[in-house]
Amino acid sequence: MELVILIGLQASGKSTFFHQYWAATHELVSKDLMRNNKNRARRQAQLVEAALQASRSVVVDNTNPTVEERASLIELGKLYGAQILGYYFQSKVSDCLERNQQRTGKARVPDVGIFATNQKLVPPSYAEGFHQLFYVKMADNSAFEIRAWTEVEVADG
Ligand SMILES: Nc1ncnc2c1ncn2[C@@H]1O[C@H](COP(=O)(O)OP(=O)(O)OP(=O)(O)O)[C@@H](O)[C@H]1O
Ligand SMILES: [Mg+2]
């Protein structure tokens, strides 16, 4: 059973990555699916816990930019004995802004949201309790390049 935590700016490709790599085998938990919920952090925790309790693997598809937000998820994962995987999306703010401009309807977020997340974004580290960490980068042909983690490399782009 796995708990997969995606980490990255808005429009860095997280949801697309989920659909390509995980949709067939893992449950999706995303705050984007709970727009009308007042306490989305609590709802998210409930959904993650329900999945793990039932031994279902789950992907948390949110920006998850801070150590604190990830800590509550990691704690839940450990409680249920899940393998905890983190995927950090290496992306430039300018590229995310551009992709965001190309989105339509509800998918497009205010640019200020991307700047705010970038301010808060702290790359993950093994010290937080992840069992495995990876870098993800958008590649050509709508593909993603996944690379092994090195604690020293945290650059964007
Ligand atoms: N590998 C890729 N190559 C090129 N474009 C991509 C790739 N993956 C996603 N995109 C495009 O980038 C945009 C953002 O992707 P996506 O919606 O998956 O990002 P996100 O990280 O889930 O954003 P949010 O946090 O706002 O939900 C989309 O318009 C998508 O079509
Ligand atoms: Mg998304």
From TrEMBL:
<dbReference type="GO" id="GO:0003690">
    <property type="term" value="F:double-stranded DNA binding"/>
</dbReference>
<dbReference type="InterPro" id="IPR027417">
    <property type="entry name" value="P-loop_NTPase"/>
</dbReference>
<dbReference type="GO" id="GO:0046404">
    <property type="term" value="F:ATP-dependent polydeoxyribonucleotide 5'-hydroxyl-kinase activity"/>
</dbReference>
<dbReference type="GO" id="GO:0046403">
    <property type="term" value="F:polynucleotide 3'-phosphatase activity"/>
</dbReference>
<dbReference type="InterPro" id="IPR017101">
    <property type="entry name" value="P-loop_ATP/GTP-bd_All4644_prd"/>
</dbReference>
<protein>
    <recommendedName>
        <fullName>Kinase</fullName>
    </recommendedName>
</protein>
<dbReference type="GO" id="GO:0006281">
    <property type="term" value="P:DNA repair"/>
</dbReference>
<dbReference type="Pfam" id="PF13671">
    <property type="entry name" value="AAA_33"/>
</dbReference>
